[in-house]
């Protein structure tokens, strides 16, 4: 191919000469792909798949890195197609997370070469900042309400609220021992007990009290963590209608997408789903049948900016808006890329933001900043997130997995 010099350098300057997989645990585990071009520009992509980190690290190391060396970093689309179509084995969380890491790192490089913030490469700014929601949780309704107040006082306009379920020893998403809650806490999965009848008793009472305590201005959200059957989810969605939720998330496991028709038939509470989806094919039926209002599929777990842009454009045809997953197990690199995407995407809804630990923020210095209830992605070229590799090396990988749920009779239950 001819050497056409451009503002962004020649294809020789853009040649990938190094690709490195960095695994680190500053507060929790993260996998990061760093790509370096001949001209010395570096790009970073998040490759973290909570509890299955080393599967993606090995996929990258063994199957992707050897194919990257010598490629032109400017050929983002072709590289995406190479790894997606070329692998024969399409989709799935491990593959799509690995492809996402490459894709985000390449977008980072190309934006740096152009000297532009990444959102500018996507089509420019559509809004001043990305509305974010924080996580409030508590051991009872009063404590959860205090937490909601604390976030409102910090300037948040949207808060997700989760409350411990009376009669259950431990509820996922509720902090223990005064620490912030962390999705994956133990080396082997912690076995917890679950009761949907008990859960369905407390949740409407929680939101009734939150509206009494905080009025109607704040947006309130809730996550069902895929634990209900379709008719239980419909009952909850209907019972929450007076409290005007921004969304009810992951009401049922989403393999059975017909379930959303049942919920829709009974309720006008907006529905969000998709943090475990990996491709546009997982979302297609729900979106084109208008069974959901927000799609949560993220850049890191669904093939990167290149694929999620396609998904968001498709969703826009049906007035479905984005609401990207942003728990602590998605690294600051993913958050930086997501915020540039959020700054551009026309059908933006909201962005989740669970604060990372101090050590995580130190290993991944970033441009994004919180102001007036929104996150602002920053203006430096690329996605605005870097890595301190020396510091990262001080935090070796420490295996951790998500808890599992069993019913009170011992049967395994859904996430
Ligand atoms: O890895 C799983 C967590 O990210 C997830 O359980 C958190 O549901 C979650 C959320 O909405 O942030
Ligand atoms: Mg969730």
TrEMBL record:
Pfam entry (one): MR_MLE_C
Enzyme class: lyase
Record flagged with keyword Zinc: no
GO molecular function annotation: mannonate dehydratase activity
Alphabetically ordered keywords of this record: Lyase
EC identifiers of the protein: 4.2.1.8
SUPFAM superfamilies reported for this sequence: Enolase C-terminal domain-like (SSF51604), Enolase N-terminal domain-like (SSF54826)
The UniProt record lists the keyword Transmembrane: no
Source taxon at top rank: Bacteria
Ranges for domain Mandelate racemase/muconate lactonizing enzyme C-terminal: 141-270
Protein name, entry field: D-mannonate dehydratase ManD
Native source organism of the sequence: Steroidobacter flavus
Upper classification of the organism: Bacteria, Pseudomonadati, Pseudomonadota, Gammaproteobacteria, Steroidobacterales
Encoding gene (name): manD
């Amino acid at each position: 191919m001819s050497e056409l010099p451009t503002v962004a350098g020649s294809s020789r300057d853009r040649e990938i000469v190094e690709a490195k997989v960095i695994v680190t645990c500053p507060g929790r585990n993260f996998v990061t792909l760093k790509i370096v071009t001949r001209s010395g520009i570096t790009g970073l992509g998040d490759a973290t798949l909570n509890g299955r980190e080393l599967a993606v690290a090995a996929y990258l190391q063994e199957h992707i890195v050897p194919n990257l060396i010598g490629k032109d970093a400017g050929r983002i689309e072709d590289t995406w197609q190479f790894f997606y179509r070329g692998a024969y084995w399409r989709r799935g969380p491990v593959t799509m997370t690995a492809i996402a890491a490459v894709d985000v790192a390449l977008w980072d490089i190309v934006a740096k070469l152009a000297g532009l913030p990444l959102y500018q490469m996507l089509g420019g700014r559509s809004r001043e900042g990305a509305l974010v929601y924080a996580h409030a949780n508590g051991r009872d309704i009063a404590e959860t309400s205090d937490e909601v107040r604390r976030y409102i006082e910090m300037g948040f306009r949207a808060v997700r609220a989760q409350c411990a379920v009376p009669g259950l020893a431990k509820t996922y998403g509720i902090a223990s021992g005064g620490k912030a809650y962390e999705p994956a806490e133990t080396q082997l999965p912690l076995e917890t007990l679950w009761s949907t009848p008990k859960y369905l008793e407390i949740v409407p009472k929680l939101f009734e009290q939150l509206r009494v305590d905080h009025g109607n201005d704040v947006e309130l959200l809730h996550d069902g963590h895929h634990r209900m059957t379709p008719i239980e989810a419909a009952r909850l969605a209907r019972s929450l209608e007076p409290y005007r939720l921004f969304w009810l998330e992951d009401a049922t496991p989403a393999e059975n997408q017909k379930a959303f028709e049942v919920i829709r038939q009974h309720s006008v509470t907006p529905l969000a789903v998709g943090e475990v989806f990996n491709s546009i094919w997982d979302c297609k039926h729900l979106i084109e049948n208008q069974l959901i209002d927000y799609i949560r599929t993220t850049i890191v777990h669904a093939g990167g900016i290149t694929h999620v842009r396609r998904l968001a454009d498709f969703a826009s045809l049906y007035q479905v808006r984005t609401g990207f997953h942003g728990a602590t197990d998605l690294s600051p690199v993913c958050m930086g890329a997501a915020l540039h995407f959020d700054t551009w995407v026309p059908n933006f809804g909201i962005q989740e933001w669970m604060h990372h630990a101090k050590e995580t923020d130190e290993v991944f210095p970033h441009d994004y900043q919180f102001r007036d209830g929104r996150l602002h992605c920053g203006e430096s070229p690329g996605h605005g997130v870097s890595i301190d590799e020396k510091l990262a090396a001080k935090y070796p990988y420490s295996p951790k997995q998500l808890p599992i749920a069993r019913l009170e009779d011992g049967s395994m239950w859904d996430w």
